Fold:
Amino acid sequence: MALVTELKKERRHAVLLTVVGLVILAILVIVFLNTLGEENVPITPAGRAANAVREQASAPPAEPVTTVTPATGIQHPAVPPDKPEEDTPQAPELEKPATVRLMLTKKTILTIDGKAVARAKQNVVEVPAGKRQVKLKLGKRSATQTVEFAGGAEYELRFDPKNEKALLKKLK
Structure:
């Protein structure tokens, strides 16, 4: 009788540990599936746009100007005179990025200038204008090509894995 009781306890423990193991496995699978798309990094501005951002961040703050009222000797901040708009330097106008429609399978990995591209559900990506190195990889097959994107233009990108070629077509 004691042996039967002991076997029932062991069976309960085995069932409980199995359920706990399955719950942990399900959590790990959910976490894995949610992090699949996070390894792709969006393209950051390059060229003039990146330089403009760096210059703004590194510019030292202007020193406050104070004036002294001769009668009282009190210092107070000076109000700069209004400057006409013509005297203020205009920031250089940044080129619009090129729009690229991706006609690729979901398993195709796209990198531009060595950075993986995050792919949206619409399969449309904006790429900064200029020369870019485009690399497509599907399984063991890959193609690398240097392409010049015009600002504001629209392109269509396809990958021919059989011939290992990237096919870029300008739409407008």
Remarks:
- The first helix runs from residue 2 to 34.
- The mean pLDDT is 76.
- The radius of gyration is 30 Å.
